# Entry
Amino acid sequence: MIVLSSPMSSVVRTSRGILPPSGFGSYRSPTAGASGPFGHSESEFNDNDEVELLSVSWNQDYGCFAAGTSHGFRIYNCDPFKETFRRDLKSGGFGIVEMLFRCNILALVGGKANTQYPPNKVIIWDDHQSRCIGEFSFRSDVRAVKLRRDRIVVVLEHKIYVYNFMDLKLLHQIETVANPRGLCCLSHNLNTSVLACPGLRRGQVRVEHFGLNMTKLIKAHDSQLSCITLTMDGLLLATASTRGTLIRIFNTMDGTQLQEVRRGVDRADIYSIALSPNVQWLSVSSDKGTVHIFSLRVRVIGEDLAIATDSGTAKSPALFYQNSSTSLDALISPSTGANPGSSLSFMKGVLPKYFSSEWSFAQFHFPESTQFIAAFASQNTVIIVGMDGSFYRCSFDPVNGGEMVQQEYFRFLKTESRPR
# Structure
């Protein structure tokens, strides 16, 4: 291995000839006696053993999710739901498991009890080769890792490092306000390279358009940020604060606020925000035991068309409309959307602000004591994963909204269905 020095006394170890994966096939099942830290046979562990769930995270297109456990990690396919892959480790588990779409590359960060991989080290693991192809060590614990095809992003509490996937060279360093949640998100379209993270002030979001060499600072909230997410092209941003009452959607090119919706009146801890691929819906999960679905009024122009530029290359349609016009008229649909508002909104000059807010269009309820993250699947369905080891698939009526209907439930650590 080559050992490279890096700022802040971080250490990067990399194998020669690393290349980011060009294909995105499914995971291969591990073989008994495979080399590396997961070299023992899976048969030494079974679902009856004591396994603690340390983390859950979606892959970039929400088709799979990874579960970090006290004995390793497991990968699950969402539709149809099934466990597709696992690796078990005797020396401890992983508090962070980040997938790269469906390919064989993962970023792993050990849990507190991991004797082999401490929580201040990132392992880039190639499971096809059953070996570590890169390693990053830092002075403080890693809060999050984000991957795209050409970048590796490591989030510490006060700093973010951006590395090139090809050779693991450091490209950017970003200072942030205290970020214990590890808030950071990336675009995943090939023709846009966007990163969003907390800025240096409370409630501020810093947006880096790397391809345009442009930084945008957005004053999103008065309180500290609790959750942020980007669309796949990185041109729309949704945010929530630690108050957890309002979710705001911004144009990342000029920082314009496009829409504001209300989860509730009482303070809440927001666990996840997701935007549907067609930018028609937004989901929010919180410690109130509810997933809320909101109708978005953001206009998507020509989503199936490519716009040719003077040079003959193609731009994404989203990039075209964001660059060509950043006014509210261009980005917000004339339709008011399907979110219900208060019948007293005509008195908004007298009544508190929340009486005229846009409220959720559809909802799903579950136990308040568990942390859940939600995302969108196909055909007006939402998938929900809980830290109690549960998986839900729910559908909502796109016309009338209301309470969502549960379609599936699995206890994924044991992969058995709950009796109806």
